[in-house]
Amino acid sequence: MNSSASDPCLTVVDENYSFTPEILDLPAQPGPAACTCPILSHLAEVHRELAGVHTGQVATYIPELAKADPDWFGICVVTTNGGVYEVGDSSVPFSIQSLSKPFVYGLALEDRGRAEVMEKIGVEPTGDAFNSISLDPETGRPRNPMINAGAITATALVEGRTSRMKLDRIVDMFGRYAGRSLEIDQAVYRSESDTGHRNRAIGYMLRNAGILTEDPAAALDLYFQQCAISATCRELAIMAATLANRGVNPLTGAQAIRGEYVESVLGVMGTCGMYDYAGEWLHDVGLPAKSGVSGGVIAVLPGQLGIGVFSPRLDRHGNSIRGVRTCNALSRHWDLHLFNRPGTGRSVIRVRSSAAELSSNRLWNPAEAAILREHGSRILVYQLQGHLLFASTELLVREIVGHDDGVDYIILDFKRVLSVNESACRLLAPLLAEYHASGRTIILTHADHLTHLGRFLRRILGARADEILQLSPDNDTALEACENRLLARLRPPATSPQNIVLKDFDLCRGLDAAELTALGQILRRRSYAAGETVIHAGDDARELFLLARGSVRVVIDLPEGRSKRLASFSAGMAFGEMAALDRAPRSATVIADTDTLCDILPLSAFDRLAVTHPGIKIKLLENLARGLSAKLRRANRELTVLE
Amino acid sequence: MNSSASDPCLTVVDENYSFTPEILDLPAQPGPAACTCPILSHLAEVHRELAGVHTGQVATYIPELAKADPDWFGICVVTTNGGVYEVGDSSVPFSIQSLSKPFVYGLALEDRGRAEVMEKIGVEPTGDAFNSISLDPETGRPRNPMINAGAITATALVEGRTSRMKLDRIVDMFGRYAGRSLEIDQAVYRSESDTGHRNRAIGYMLRNAGILTEDPAAALDLYFQQCAISATCRELAIMAATLANRGVNPLTGAQAIRGEYVESVLGVMGTCGMYDYAGEWLHDVGLPAKSGVSGGVIAVLPGQLGIGVFSPRLDRHGNSIRGVRTCNALSRHWDLHLFNRPGTGRSVIRVRSSAAELSSNRLWNPAEAAILREHGSRILVYQLQGHLLFASTELLVREIVGHDDGVDYIILDFKRVLSVNESACRLLAPLLAEYHASGRTIILTHADHLTHLGRFLRRILGARADEILQLSPDNDTALEACENRLLARLRPPATSPQNIVLKDFDLCRGLDAAELTALGQILRRRSYAAGETVIHAGDDARELFLLARGSVRVVIDLPEGRSKRLASFSAGMAFGEMAALDRAPRSATVIADTDTLCDILPLSAFDRLAVTHPGIKIKLLENLARGLSAKLRRANRELTVLE
Fold first, then answer.
1. How far is CA B640 from CA A411, A551, B297, B347, B633, in A?
2. Do A402 and B10 lie within an 8 Å CB cutoff?
3. What angle do CA B620, B621, B626 make, to 5 degrees?
4. Which of A379, A452, A611, B332 is most buried when burial is the number of CB atoms within 10 A of its CB?
């Protein structure tokens, strides 16, 4: 909602997107205008050049239109990311005329469904003029909703018990598209109504053919009013961008039309939007578009942007001359042709790694760590990104099936996935079911922002969905679950857990019996119940911990009450050793996962060792440094994978 | 080139793509068929269902076509990533008939240019039948290249001194599209030629209108031959996928048509490809398509895939009944409608980080490191990904302009950018020029694979391109360059470089004067010339190095003679300390960057210190461990940024 009209180059809205803010944190406020905006400068250049074109005639078929200043010329481009760029007379209001047709057609589709609308209105282009009276000789339908006969029929199909209610629905809809309530220009409406005899003829012909089932007067009156709705070229660009954005206004987040009908609206714009210039338009400009006799043109690049142009001088087809040339210039210069798109599939997998490279933050004991090193390739993590559509998901499925050999656990990380459609779910669901049926596991992580994903998958998987669908909040949790299952299969049969004795700690490597005894005498044993806090973040560091039994986790607090696990330690490991080196306050909290026994070395005693038992101190320091060195190697390996 | 026809689910080709193999390493060979392919199963399901449809008639207008088995039914889908999925009679050859039209139109465009072709052939859809004899009354042109009159004209426009040479060009072109040389079915050709009276009439009418400038017999003969070219539905799908892939055959990498003409070919397919069913088709199926009277249909989703269907029974429009219904079913099920695309802009920035978080691998001395920590936010790194088109680059430019305050150095990392088009360069170039003009810096890294990028930018930047355009092989080099420039501005005036004395080494922190003297006595000084190797990877570790003057870099060898810098050290730092702890062979090579002086501690002496000077040894170990701990914290910080 934070559209900042004052600086079009920096208008932006974040709320409607599910992306990761730490990756891409767009400025909500305009920054210093240190750089010239290259998009605005190009628009200004096109405007300057085409403002010199004075050919064509302002429409005069209703008197009000003839009052337009023939030199008005505005251009506006709005992206689906909420960027707004405008030059010239982009704030001059004018009546939208035929530009209303695709939007009202969309409303009719929403209100009546595709089938009922298709019974009444065709979708074939016609060589006839927009105000042709002829209907399809075979079906009796108007040939498409962009000619007047089809548009009047669409208006009549809008839901509403009374004309007033229908009009309110139409005006409300335009408001959602434009981002503000649009007015009807009463003078234009009266002029339109006073001179609309040909449209009345069309209305009665539709009544005669049974396409309209009531007296046409009401539908015609509504139609005259919708044509007289007043908007600026900036608003038309926002409306076009809303169509580009699957029906969601990129500046306000309002859903102007259900996404499933957008393709039908753009479909008729693609073949019938520019009168009998539609073929050349789609060939040259390559964008679904619509023009109006008052001089407006909108064009839509699905997924990317909407264009609005306003210049009243028309060519013989009834299209704005500068409007057509502006769209042509922008499409060429910015390569917007719809049929000239690069492939998007390859970037769906951001990183693929195995647990041998990127393991969970649980620090397993040496025997377990060795098993995971050897068998870690049985656990694969796919970090996905972008949009999961048919083509990108096809690649993912092919990749998974192709790396299937010896893989028992797969983690699909959706953190950077922007959207998932149902067709992607149709490809993923059978894979989940097959893995499950063969006793293997696929876990989906970071999927909370994709509200459709679970719903689609559940619907496709049916009764067994709860059993098959495994979701986990993050990769760390999912990885540990997979590691646990893998270890449960591969670990030697568990002996009943015993306390780790001093000589078996990595930290005590190289100490002889006498040294172990001496060290033992200065340790203090302490026990913690499961869930108890062992170390509080922020406390002064006074002790070093040797974990003799149980396991603990290290967590840091994140904003909004969340926390993140940095590591988990099992019996036989030491923790709290960083503070033993730099004596800084504790940087994280340590919590007992299970009932836990710790042998504790007070740092004061550790210090005294330098004097009383320098040999012990040297060996402890060497072991500490070796442990840090191993962790550093692991971190560098992870960096290599991620970078 | 490694298309493996035996397992369609796993066919893949890597050569034509510039993506990072370590990120996405697709299987070149089929893996074990442990998983059922969900794409193939859906194709099989659609095939099973529609095989029950027996309505419609096989074309009989030439006798050879009437010989087709009406129950033939093949479906094939080929993705731009090289995935091939086929079911049913996908290997039955048949004459392509009108399916030849868009491809030959594309060849005419390549041979004559858009302007000359547009003079001869329009691009407007027509309600007329495909074999209509009428021309556009205003221009005398055939209305579009998908009706016979326009197609014959396109054939006549193909370059070639003789008919034989023209035919060879046409057949060669089809070979590039299909991935193998296609034959002309002589029986069909003769049948076509024997009965082609109406087409002859069209030919003479074109000659009469001056559209054909020579006797039409030769063009007609060529046209009959091109219609008789024989292909399978699999090959048609590959041809369609080639159009989806900007003219590059996704299985062979051959350029079948220049990318700039693909949009024109798809444009006429979009409005005129399905006879007078084109409007409903674009509305419902939403894919540019073409059908042929022999029962073939192709459909194209630009950037993503091509579909080929073969089933000879036709509806009253002349389109294959099962073909239309198959495309409809696939488009619905897999959500392929061209006008229903999600936005792609947001994912262009993979990570944004500053030098305060991710610095170069040069380890600066403490004073320099402190400056970089404080001012590191003046250096920003943008890791980009995906395709840089107008909408994605718009977002990037907006992001850069919005985070412009206090930023002096920007690194744009193109490593994961799949393509850059000219319109993206038009947005980037002014930004580069402005940064340069204001004494700031933008460096592009990892851009070698984007051969167009430099060319486009140079052309746009003009005479000052060499000065403005700064390229660097990798982020590490670029970051160090930026750090150097920043330090040059912020560092206190340089005193003439002096050797670092022992007490100023981090490693010697806490040593008293007597201990420093004792340590000094066991150090050996050694000098290295710039470029000289200090440590060889693989050697046994025998020494620990204190860098008293100069700087060194640590490098590892990569495949193909490349190497990667892991770190650089400046005077005052110690290196080779990991081996001092674990005594493993050297894992990397160290090379002197400048003339260098080292104070060397033999590890044998280091060991003896435990006995002779345990106090010194303890302090050295504590300092070593603290250094490792600091590096570990840095690595963890980088991991947080990247993860």
1. 19, 24, 51, 19, 11
2. yes
3. 100
4. A379
Give the ipTM of the model, two decimals please: 0.78
Q: For chain A, say whether B612 makes contact (Cβ under 8 Å).
A: no
Phi-psi region of A342 (alpha: psi -120 to 50; beta: other; left: phi over 0): beta
- In this structure, what token pair is assigned to residue A7? 């600086």
DSSP state letters, A501-519: PGGGSGGGTT--HHHHHHH
Q: Which of B365, B370, B367, B371 is nearest to B547 (CA)?
A: B365
Which of B495, B445, B503 has the alpha carbon at shortest distance from B469? B445
Q: What is the 3-state secondary structure (H, E, C) of A433-473?
A: HHHHHCCCEEEEECCCCCHHHHHHHHHHHHHHHHHHCEEEC
B354 in active site: no
> Looking at B15-24, B206-215, B239-248, which range is the least confident one?
B15-24
Question: Which residue matches tokens 């044509």?
Answer: A227
Tens of pLDDT, residues A129-157: 677 777 888 888 998 999 999 999 999 99
Is B223 assigned a catalytic role? yes
DSSP letter at B621 equals H
Residue with tokens 């200004």: A44
How far is it, in rounded angstroms, from Cα B525 to Cα A54?
84
For chain B, how many helices (H) and strands (E)?
Answer: 21, 23
Which residues on chain A are in Cβ contact (under 8 Å) with B438?
Answer: 34
Is the pTM of the predicted complex or chain greater than 0.90?
no
Burial of B522 (0-12, 13-18, 19+ CB in 10 A): middle
Could you tell me which of A60, A73, A1 has the C-alpha nearest to residue A308?
A: A73
Q: Would the CB atoms of A80 and B398 count as touching at under 8 Å?
A: no
Q: Is B20 on the interface with A (CB under 8 A)?
A: no
Structure tokens at B569: 């050290």
Tell me if B358 sits within 8 A of A444, measured CB to CB: no
Read off φ and ψ for residue B586, nearest 5 degrees: -60, 130
Closest C-alpha to A609, from A624, A596, A594:
A624
Please give the Cα distance from A618 to B581 (Å, whole number): 12
CB contact under 8 A, B352 and A635: no
User: Could you tell me which of A259, A52, A566, A411 has the C-alpha nearest to residue B341?
Assistant: A259
Tens of pLDDT along B313-328?
A: 999 989 999 999 999 9
Max Cα-Cα span within chain A: 112
User: Residues near B437 by Cβ (< 8 Å), separated by ≥ 6?
Assistant: none
Q: Is A627 on the interface with B (CB under 8 A)?
A: no
Torsion from C-alpha of A484, A486, A488, A492, nearest 10 degrees: -120
| pLDDT at residue B497, rounded to an integer | 65
Q: How far is CA B511 from CA A603, A613, B434, in A?
A: 20, 19, 53
Token pair belonging to A517? 């005894």
**B275 is an active site residue:** yes
Per-residue pLDDT of B77-108, as tens digits, reads 999 988 899 999 999 999 999 999 999 999 99
Residue pointed to by tokens 């689906």: A80
Strands B379-388, A533-535: pairing kind: unpaired
Per DSSP, the residues of B96-131 read -GGGHHHHHHHHHHHHHHHHHHHHH------SS-TT
Buried b (16+ CB within 10 A) or exposed e, B96-126: bbbbbbbbbbbbbbbbbeeeebbebbbbbbb
Nearest to B9 among A81, A262, A398 (CB): A398
Per-residue model confidence as pLDDT tens digits over A23-46: 233 333 333 344 578 888 899 999
Structure tokens, B257: 């048509």
Q: Which residue has the tokens 């680059």?
A: B393
Q: What is the pairing mode between strands B305-310 and B296-301? A: antiparallel
